[in-house]
Design a protein that fits this description.
The protein is an all-alpha fold. Helix content is 77%, strand content 0%. α7 packs antiparallel against α10.
């Protein structure tokens, strides 16, 4: 059946409107970062920066402890994602391929952990870290970030492992591979879309996390970029150009990562949800 012109127009129009609604704040953030101070505080909004300046970015990057917090954020985020992938892919294989007592309860427990709001457990986590004398350390942050993203990683990868035919693994074992070799050579390469989607989700979650680091790490040398970004306006008063430059620098790694991985990440999330 032929679709009417209206039936072709309204989905595209809806998509354009949603695109503008979600993209405009991002554009305004980056545009404000490049505007001179006079254009920022002008009563008439300047939609396109004509005299672009990098002064606001220089102000943001010259702030105290900026590069230290960049290193801290990269360290805890990358380590948390890598550890969660290592644990998640092996646990997902066990849940998808093996049958053992308590397996269903194990899966339900991870689902509940995925839905639990971590903010309500900040006080309990603080007491645990304080009693272990590990406040102002990156190790607790890395461990708890890993625990935050592990349920999603495990449940998503379980769907991918379950979608791989058992015959492939059995054929490799017949040809002389051990079970670990069959997993490494046959199953693991087929999990690439799932690994990318879960790593992207984990990176965004750990990179943006704010309440935990705010409570656990009080010293400036042990903080991460979300805390630095929240205190930026206080340090520089009403310097909105520098504030927007700081926000742009904070968002840039996620935007770059998403541009490179978005196609595989979206397909990975869809496949993992359907095949699980």
């Amino acid at each position: 059946m032929k679709r009417s012109p209206l039936g072709r127009i309204w989905p595209n129009l809806t998509a354009v409107v949603l695109f503008l609604v979600f993209v405009f704040p991002v554009y305004w953030m980056f545009a404000t970062a490049f505007k001179p101070t006079g254009d920022i505080i002008s009563e008439n909004p300047v939609w396109f920066p004509t005299d672009a300046t990098f002064e606001h970015f220089k102000t943001a990057m010259d702030a105290d402890h900026f590069w230290t917090m960049v290193g801290n954020s990269i360290t805890v985020t990358v380590c948390a994602v890598v550890f969660s992938l290592i644990i998640g892919v092996t646990a997902a294989f066990a849940l998808a391929r093996m049958r053992f007592k308590g397996r269903r309860g194990f899966i339900i427990g991870f689902m509940l952990a995925q839905m639990a709001p971590w903010e309500v457990m900040v006080i309990a986590i603080y007491m645990i870290v304080r009693d272990a004398d590990m406040l102002n350390s990156l190790i607790p942050l890395t461990l708890f970030y890993m625990v935050m993203i592990l349920p999603f990683t495990l449940l998503t990868l379980r769907g991918f492992v379950a979608a791989v035919p058992k015959e492939l693994e059995e054929s490799a074992m017949v040809d002389g591979c051990t079970r670990m070799q069959a997993f490494r050579r046959v199953i693991l390469p087929l999990l690439a879309p799932g690994l990318m989607s879960t790593s992207l989700f984990g990176f965004i979650t750990a990179w943006n996390e704010f309440p935990l680091v705010l409570v656990l790490n009080k010293e400036a040398d042990a903080k991460t970029l979300p805390v630095w970004l929240s205190s930026f306006q206080t340090a520089f008063g009403d310097d909105w150009g520098a504030t927007m430059a700081a926000a742009s620098l904070f968002a840039l790694p996620i935007l770059i990562l998403f541009v490179f991985l978005q196609r595989r990440a979206v397909s990975g999330l869809t496949d993992g949800a359907v095949k699980g």
